[in-house]
Structure formats: structure tokens, C-alpha cells
Amino acid sequence: MTSINSKMFRPRPASIVSAAALSIAVIAGTAAAPASASLGPISAGPAHPSPAAPDLVSDLTYPTTISHRGGAAVYPEESMEGFTASVKDGFLPEMDIQFLEDGTPVLIHDDTADRTLNGVSGPIRDLSLEEWNSATIKSPTGGKEAATVTLAEALDELGGEVVIVPEIKPGATSAEVDQVLDEFDERGLSDSLIVQSFDFEAAKTIAERGYTSLYLMGATLPKQSFDEISDAGIEWVGPSKNLPTRDLRKLDKAGFHVAPYTLKTSKDGHRLPGWIDGYFTDDAWTK
């Protein structure tokens, strides 16, 4: 965890349970809306409390909505604000794992800081933990920036409370894949994670280690046969939304849970075939 001295202004969001209770209180008229509500569309509030996202993979209902990078079109990308807002409204938070100079796993999509962060620049692997903690995440709407998040911080807040969909980014070594899975093991999260990778060997390792594995692929079918993917223990596949429908159907008929990426809003998700088991979207709130 980050010391107070290394990151003085790093307010911790309320826990998911507290946030949900506060949401109910707001609806009942007994509390003020949280300040962070102005960050996204949840500020208006639903007529009734939204169901919280499930905490076990076995409890998922389909199609499930995966909040890509914590709702990157609405909240600062891969911020705790986006993750907790997603969970409160029943969506699975998705996040990307990169590594700092000292090997600390952190949550950011790009392998460089420049697009999404202020205060630092250059490759993520060249940043110290102090530099990471001093940076802030840009808002997609020009609103308030957010604190950066390490994997440990996200797991402290969300681990075991909700199904999380982390991606171990391409370029991670086999030792780093094991490092991340070891951290998941230490927290007893095997039933609460869908772990993704574009790398087949990494996806295979994820499955071998007892985690629900999602093999990401592009707009064409992978070079591996469906039997090879299935024999590796991989249960989910994440093709590009541009993969032809006939190929999506082939994956479905082969027995995989199919979750295309990345849709602009949930409204686009409703246009997918009924046999799709999930989808990734940058804006899970717009129906």
C-alpha cells in the first residue's frame, strides 16, 4: 500500500457496501448525493436501487455487461470512481494490468502514460511507484481528474465483492503472469475473476491455475483450433465486435461464452444476437 508521505492526496472511495447504502438513503431522501456522482450519468439516479454486480462467476446472468476500463467514456479511465460506480449499477468492472519499474502491477491500458495520465510521461515500465502515485488520470468529459490505482488497491476495494475482469496485457513475462495470479491466490479470488489475455499461452496458464480464462482475439478467428482452445481449459472468448456474425456464432456453437469488445454504449449491446453471453462497453449506463 502507498504511504501517506508518498501520496498525500489520495482519498479512498467509500466501500461498495457503503456506497450502495448511501445510494438507497439518497433515494429515501435521508442523505445527500455523493460528490463523485457528478462524474457520470449515475448522478440522476435510477427510480429504484440498481442491483449490485454479482460476486461469483457462477452467479452471472447473461448477457452480462462488462464496464470497459471502468467506463472509459464516462469516468477517468481505470479509476476507482469508475470501478465502484460500475459495480453499484450492476456492471462488471474491467481493468488492464501493466507493470512499473519495480514490478508493481498497476491499472492502465496503454504501455505509455501520455494518453491518459497527467504529471508523468513515457513508458509505464520506466515509472517509479512514487511517480505513479503522483500522477492523475484525465477525465474523458473534462471533469475532475482521479487518482491512479495499483492492482493491490483495486483488490483491497473490490476483491471478493464483485466479479472483476482483469486483463494481463501483452508483453507480460510468464513470471509476471504468475506474479499476478499469485496475488489473486493469496486473496482467494479464484471464484470471483474472469482473467483475460490476448496471449494464448497466458490464457492457458490462467486456466491451469484454476481461474476462469477469457482468450481475447481480433476481427478474425485465432490460429488455434476450437478444440485446442477448449482443451486448454479456456471457457470465454473475447472477439472484436468486427468479427463477422457467422464466426461469432461458430464460437458460440463450439461451447464458449462469447463477449465481443468494445461497444460504444449498452444500447449497442442490445443489438447483439441473443446468444451472446456478454459484451464490453465504454458506457454501460446509456441504454
Highlighted features:
287 residues; 4-stranded parallel sheet; 9 helices; 12 strands; 27% helix; globular; disordered N terminus
Topology:
Elements (H helix, E strand, L loop, with lengths): L15 H13 L35 E4 L12 H9 L3 E8 L5 E3 L9 E2 L10 H6 L1 E2 L8 E2 L3 H8 L6 E4 L5 H13 L7 E4 L2 H9 L3 E5 L9 H6 L4 E3 L6 H9 L3 E2 L7 H4 L8 E4 L6
Describe, in plain words, how this protein is organized in 3D:
The structure is a single chain. Strands 1, 2, 3, 7 and 12 form a five-stranded mixed β-sheet that branches. Strands 8-9-10-11 form a four-stranded parallel β-sheet, covered by helices on one side. Strands 4-5-6 form a three-stranded antiparallel β-sheet. The chain has helices spanning 16-28, 80-88, 129-134, 151-158, 174-186, 200-208, 226-231, 245-253, 266-269; strands spanning 64-67, 92-99, 105-107, 117-118, 136-137, 146-147, 165-168, 194-197, 212-216, 236-238, 257-258, 278-281. The protein contains nine helices and twelve strands. It has 287 residues and is an alpha/beta fold. The longest helix has 13 residues, at 16-28.
What is the share of helical residues?
A: 25-40%
- Could you state the order of secondary-structure elements as H and E? HEHEEEHEEHEHEHEHEHEHE
By DSSP (H or I, 4+ residues per run), the number of helices equals 9
End-to-end separation in angstroms reads 37 Å
What is the number of beta strands? 12
Shape: globular
Low-pLDDT runs of 5+ residues are: 1-9, 11-48
What value does the Rg take, in angstroms? Answer: 18 Å
Biggest beta-sheet profile: 5 strands, mixed
Q: What class, by secondary structure content?
A: alpha/beta
Strand content: 5-15%
What is the typical, i.e. mean, pLDDT?
87
